[in-house]
Specification:
Elements lengths: L1 E2 L6 E3 L2 E3 L4 E2 L16 E3 L2 E4 L3 E2 L8
Antiparallel strand pairs: 1-7, 2-6, 3-4, 3-5
Length: 61
């Protein structure tokens, strides 16, 4: 996931990883890579618009 919007353009929208209790960076241009097995969520955006580029990569186990 790559953060495309500057953080001052919106409120909310944090990417949170439940088990780790961590919140991903909201800095514009930052990338967050994580295993698909990690339970995560994005909080609702309460003001403005948040854009992110999301991609999935498959690999053999």
């Amino acid at each position: 996931s790559v953060q495309l919007s500057p953080p001052e353009d919106y409120e909310g929208g944090s990417l949170i990883f439940r088990k780790a209790g961590q919140v991903a960076s909201t800095e514009q241009g930052s990338a967050t890579l994580f295993p698909s097995s990690w339970i995560h969520q994005v909080q609702p955006v309460t003001r403005g618009t948040r854009f992110a580029l999301v991609a999935w990569i498959n690999s053999p186990k």
